[in-house]
């Protein structure tokens, strides 16, 4: 499959911070790129060196992120051809669902910290959705 990433990633900002390990932030960005279709199943990834240059990180840091993604099954290596996104649509869907649940969990925690009950949070969500679709 032809890669779709050629013109998409240079415009993206990596927005790496010092509050968490950089390789984890890289993994999170690449996972988001996978579940949102920025990278499609079977797409070839740019080289470690190319992505490291784009993200302004050490190639070893990018390699560590790739190795972890490979360990998780989201990326695989073909010896002389490079790295590719998994073609396992179930795995990608599971990742997307888990990322959604993590986002919801973080949102609910924030709402509790603000003093909102579950019912209040649901009411506010419904109002916000109504306004968004209006």
Q: How is the largest sheet built, in terms of strand order?
A: 1-2
Distance between the termini: 39 Å
Assess the beta-strand content as a share of residues.
5-15%
Quote the average pLDDT.
90
Task: Supply the number of helical segments.
Answer: 5
Largest sheet: 2 strands, antiparallel
Structural class comes to mainly alpha
Give the ordered list of helices and strands.
HHHEEHH
Spans where pLDDT lies below 50 across 5 or more residues: 1-11
| Rg, Å, rounded | 18 Å
Shape: elongated
Helical residue percent band: 55-70%
Number of strands: 2
Description of the molecule:
By secondary structure, the chain is mostly helical. 57% of the residues lie in helices and 6% in strands. Strands 1-2 form a two-stranded antiparallel sheet. A hairpin with a 3-residue loop joins strand 1 (75-78) and strand 2. Helix 1 crosses helix 3 and helix 2 (48-55) crosses helix 3. It is elongated, with a radius of gyration of 18 Å. Mean pLDDT is 90; it is low at 1-11.
Structure described in brief:
With 134 residues, the chain is mainly alpha-helical. It is built from 5 helices and 2 strands, in the order αααββαα.
């Amino acid at each position: 499959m032809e890669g779709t990433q050629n013109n998409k990633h240079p415009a993206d900002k990596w927005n790496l911070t010092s509050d968490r390990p950089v390789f984890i932030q890289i993994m999170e960005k690449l996972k988001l790129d996978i579940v949102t279709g920025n990278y499609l199943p079977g797409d070839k990834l740019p080289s470690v060196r190319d992505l490291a240059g784009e993200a302004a990180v050490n190639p070893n840091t990018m390699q560590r992120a790739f190795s972890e993604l490979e360990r998780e099954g989201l990326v695989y290596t073909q010896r002389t051809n490079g790295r590719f996104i998994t073609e396992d649509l179930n795995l990608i869907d599971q990742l997307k669902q888990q990322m959604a649940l993590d986002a919801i969990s973080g949102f609910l925690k924030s709402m509790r910290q603000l003093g909102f009950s579950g019912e209040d949070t649901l009411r506010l969500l419904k109002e916000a959705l109504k306004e968004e679709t209006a």
